[in-house]
Design goal:
By secondary structure, the protein is an alpha/beta fold. It has helices spanning 14-25, 62-75, 126-129, 138-141, 157-166, 186-193, 253-257, 294-315; strands at residues 5-10, 30-34, 79-82, 85-89, 95-99, 104-112, 116-118, 134-135, 149-153, 172-176, 198-201, 204-210, 217-222, 228-232, 241-244, 248-250, 262-263, 266-267, 280-282. The structure holds NADP nicotinamide-adenine-dinucleotide phosphate. NADP nicotinamide-adenine-dinucleotide phosphate binds next to helix 5.
Amino acid sequence: MKDIYDVIIIGAGPAGLAAGIYAGRYRLSTLILEKSAYGGQAVLTSEIENYPGVFNEGPVGGQELTERMRAQAAHFGAEFETAEIVSAEFDSTVKKLKAQDGREFSARTVIIAGGAHYRPIGCKNEERFVGCGISYCATCDANFFAGLDVYVAGGGESALEEAMYLARVARRVYIVHRRDKFRASAYTVERASRIDNISFIMDSVVEEADGEDVLDTLRIRNVKTGEISVVTADEEDGMLGLFGFVGMEPETGIYEAAGIELKDGYINAGEDTHTNKDGVYAAGDIRIKSLRQIVTAAADGAVAAFEAERYLSSIG
Ligand code: NAP
């Protein structure tokens, strides 16, 4: 490990890994920090078919795609460390990052690519049933629900795509969406509508989860009529599944504390990825943007590395 890197990238999702590939090819000394697993939210996506060039007689898995990106960044010289950054200091020429375990990292530029984490469904008893009926990752947990009834909360791209994945193993998948129109693209809605064992429960939210040791009961409220439906697992099944895909929340608290400007909770950085601090850039889902996709995250990573290289050349 170096005392001072040219660039430290926080987050090893598609934005951070793309930044690592570009920074490595600019021959900048590059360290990528990730608090847990590499790949970011993309790893949780069962099938990716809209990232250009990856569709080859079928979609690619998020895990495989991001593992290829990670290997590519390493090939061009990026170093990796597992570290959860808990505080940052961006006001000096050398920026300092502190990890939860007390380690400190320093760099002349920082690319913040920490992404976002899943938003909880917001139903009663949610935390109690995580791991015993409630999940946020179909790729990880679908097999636990083979042959069972599964409910999916949400109406975006994730909810519908992951519902289609779950429908391959579950008996029936019920998508519970709070409005009468999906946020997901028309193409994805059409595909989900054609699957026999997917049903839509519109204008509704999951209000409460219940059960003894495992989830076996849900209370679903129609937001227009106020009517509550109680669904219970078949006696033979003994268990229901509930998957939450109700959007993401950015992880920006520590950056706000370090003086980085936010807008609606996201880092206020435009297409050039510049934040309000010199030498600090924001890439991917963590910055304000209109389209949060792997392709736009990767594009941000490339731009951020380019901007970091320009800044480093300017300070000599
Ligand atoms: P999203 O697009 O923000 O959709 C969240 C969905 O959950 C919305 O339908 C929203 O309802 C609903 N929702 C939000 N809060 C809720 C609550 N408290 N209770 C019930 N429902 C709630 O999130 P996402 O689907 O996770 O996608 C995140 C980003 O990743 C998006 O930009 C998406 O396009 C992208 N993505 C892309 C792909 C792909 O292209 N292959 C795959 C997955 C995700 P309303 O519609 O009423 O607001």
